[in-house]
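User: Predict the complex with adenosine-5'-diphosphate.
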Amino acid sequence: MRRNRVVVVGSTNMDLVASVPRPPAPGETVLGTAFTTTPGGKGANQAIAAAKAGADVVFVGAVGDDTFALDLRQALVDAEVDTENLREVPGPSGVAAITVDADGGNAIVVVPGANAQLTTLTDADLQAIADADVLLCQLEIPLDTVVAAARHAAAHDTVVMLNPSPVRPLPDALLAAVDVLVVNQTEAWQLGRDVLAAVPHVVTTLGADGVRYRTHQLLQSIPSPTVDAVDTTGAGDAFAGVLACEWGAEPLAALIFAGAAGALATTRRGASVSSPTRAEIDALVTAWP
Ligand code: ADP
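Assistant: Here is the predicted structure with adenosine-5'-diphosphate placed in the model:
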């Protein structure tokens, strides 16, 4: 089966994760117990998930001129994502400074850095979008860039898939261009009924309860395989990336496949590193009644 050509226009961040007994109060210093740096950002995570599932993926994004930029680019290259359209801009790369406390609760500061400088699309970006089967976007980059990408895709019969996270009001020009909206329950609630009703395909992810899929003609629930979840970080990104890889004439088959990918992502720690390979997803889908 031919897999989709996917263009992701989105963010890439370095996640700086400190394990702490409890988060520090203002003015306080606490001693952490562990520290990791992991490439992340919803755009890059979803691009990597799509590529690991077998899609041809082009990533349109921006890194800074700091040392993090090298690792952020390399994470995409390692997953065989095309980074031809990833630019380097002056200043810091995007970072997320995260504390994880003993109860698993987290506190996060995101500084967009280079992601905020992704304000224009080049001719090469526009060509890649026009040539793709699916454009996949999130909202961790300037909204105007997402709108421009989506409108260009819609004008060239490229399916526009949007994961509107972090959620914010969606301009009419963007809503009119979106074919598939991928939201979790919180985002669905925040966007509201009218916004969801405006989109042809709405996919609501429900964690361990699977997925709800709505078109103007049908409403369908798709359960998720049961797995031993250890860390749900990255499940939503794995789901969205794999859905973009599979989306086509049979949405239900694509949703089952993406749901299995989301489930597998919860069985490992981390975000993009936890997204499964095609062989792993195939094995789970086949074993599942
Ligand atoms: P988000 O991380 O954006 O909140 P969800 O938690 O809804 O997204 O997860 C996305 C998808 O991953 C779900 O629709 C489901 O298919 C799968 N998934 C997530 N958590 C689990 C779980 N505990 N068990 C099985 N599948 C899961």
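DSSP finds ten helices and 13 strands in the chain.
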